[in-house]
Automatic annotation (TrEMBL):
GO BP terms in the entry: porphyrin-containing compound biosynthetic process
Purpose: Probably acts as a heme chaperone, transferring heme to an unknown acceptor. Binds one molecule of heme per monomer, possibly covalently. Binds 1 [4Fe-4S] cluster. The cluster is coordinated with 3 cysteines and an exchangeable S-adenosyl-L-methionine.
Record-linked InterPro entries: Coproporphyrinogen-III_oxidase (IPR034505), Elp3/MiaA/NifB-like_rSAM (IPR006638), HemN_C (IPR010723), HemW-like (IPR004559), rSAM (IPR007197), rSAM_sf (IPR058240)
One protein family per Pfam: Radical_SAM
Name under which the protein is recorded: Heme chaperone HemW
A GO CC annotation given for this chain: cytoplasm
The Radical SAM core domain, residue ranges: 9-244
Keyword annotations of the record: 4Fe-4S, Chaperone, Cytoplasm, Heme, Iron, Iron-sulfur, Metal-binding, S-adenosyl-L-methionine
GO MF terms, alphabetically ordered: 4 iron, 4 sulfur cluster binding; coproporphyrinogen oxidase activity; metal ion binding
Species whose genome carries this gene: Nitrosomonas ureae
Subcellular localization(s) per the UniProt record: Cytoplasm
Lineage top rank: taxon: Bacteria
Length: 404
């Protein structure tokens, strides 16, 4: 059998930066993110040491992305807004020094109600943050309590009011299919979010993830039929308020889509720094994924010892490339330009032609030489659509070898 060359990329995709801040006031019972509740013996986060380690982490990452510019930065968590504006300014100053930002780059900070102080958020804006993502989840005090949030409805509204004073690009995170939630409750939440006049709304279906308190002690949730009705209602309500449903769970005013997230969906590159952060970095002849040490104490300890902060690194196989591209890009309601598949994976679209045809025959996908996108049915049954492209169902390596 002939040795076939590794697929080559003719150009590198856009590059984003994700910075992880792993601490929060309280661990929510549904949350499976790498977030760690501040213990009673910790009066505050170890801000100075953590910021210094983030900068060291970024300096080390330069060897993989030297000379590239950042299209977006996302400061996520946890609750990054537990950190001071001075800390954010130090991180962003280092970023601008080491990896220049494109003009008008999107710089997003995640924040939770309960951490909002007017002066602090004015200072965040001056530090260069130009987009906020606020974890509201619900405006209903009973549902906030049921999902373990530390804020109430009044703090949620106050957070939005403060944000609107200093930022003109704001996302609100909401959840639906909550314990005890009815269709009317969900509609009140999405109507309240739309009435705020923010530029972006994310609405996520509450799911019971392994390694969470809710998974071990599951609450009674609305059934699938009720949840589907909520999803339909959310899509209609946001549309009525001029928000476009551009991604499975995301709704934006014209031109206000999350550029950082769209880069993820279109299989762009990103460097992730901070405890447990993930990276995806393309080179001409390979694509690699990395993960930093997950536990904050271990991450900081590795930095003190001068060791590598990367715990796991792996190179994507041909099958990984095609599946991961599809897994991300098919979340976009408008799909993607067909040539982008080869541009981002190095593989001809023919390697997944069989899967594309099957998805089209099942009514889940529409595709031609110009564009590939999920149908309305495909968006409703996204997991079924993605299942078709799973590596065990894909013969990408064999398909590649059969091409002229």
């Amino acid at each position: 059998m002939l040795d076939w060359p590794t697929p080559k990329l003719k150009s590198l995709p856009p590059l984003s930066l994700y910075v992880h801040f792993p601490w929060c006031l309280k661990k929510c019972p549904y949350c499976d993110f790498n977030s760690h509740e501040l213990r009673t013996d910790e009066s505050r986060v170890p801000e100075e040491e953590y910021v210094a380690t983030l900068i060291r982490d970024l300096e080390f990452a330069l060897q993989d992305v030297w000379g590239r510019r950042l299209s977006s930065v996302f400061l996520g968590g946890g609750t990054p807004s537990l950190f001071s504006a001075e800390a954010m300014d130090a991180v962003l100053t280092a970023v601008r020094t080491l990896l220049p930002l494109e003009h008008f780059a999107e710089v997003t900070l995640e924040a939770n109600p309960g951490t909002f102080e007017a002066q602090k958020f004015a200072d965040f804006r001056r530090a260069g943050i130009n987009r906020l993502s606020i974890g509201i989840q619900s405006f209903n005090p009973r549902h906030l309590k049921a999902i373990g949030r530390v804020h109430d409805d009044q703090e949620a509204h106050r957070a939005v009011d403060i944000a609107l004073k200093y930022f003109d690009n704001i996302n609100l995170d909401l959840m639906y299919a909550l314990p005890g939630q009815t269709l009317e409750h969900a509609q009140a939440d999405i109507e309240a979010a739309c009435a705020c006049g923010v530029t972006h709304i994310s609405a996520y279906h509450l799911t019971l993830e392994p390694n969470t308190l809710f998974y071990r002690f599951p609450p009674k949730l609305p059934d699938d039929e009720a949840a589907a009705a909520m999803q339909d209602m959310i899509e209609q309500t946001t549309s009525d308020h001029q928000y476009r449903n551009y991604e499975t769970s995301a709704f934006a005013r014209a031109g206000k889509e999350s550029r950082h997230n769209v880069n993820y969906w279109l299989f762009g590159d990103y460097v992730g720094i901070g405890a447990g952060a993930h990276s995806k970095i393309s080179f001409a002849d390979k694509i690699v994924r990395q993960m930093r040490y997950k536990q904050p104490k271990e991450y900081l300890a590795k930095a003190r010892m001068g060791g590598s902060l990367i715990q796991v690194q792996q190179e994507l196989t041909v099958a990984d490339r095609s599946f991961e591209f599809m897994m991300n890009a098919l979340r976009l309601t408008g799909g993607f330009d067909t040539p982008l598949f080869q541009e981002r994976t190095g593989l001809p679209i023919a390697v997944v032609q069989q899967q594309l045809d099957e998805a089209e025959q099942r009514g889940l996908l529409a595709h031609d030489h110009l564009r590939i996108k999920p149908t309305v049915l495909g968006r409703r049954f996204l997991n079924d659509l993605l299942q078709i492209f799973l590596p065990e169902n894909t013969s990408s390596d064999n398909a590649l070898k059969s091409l002229p």
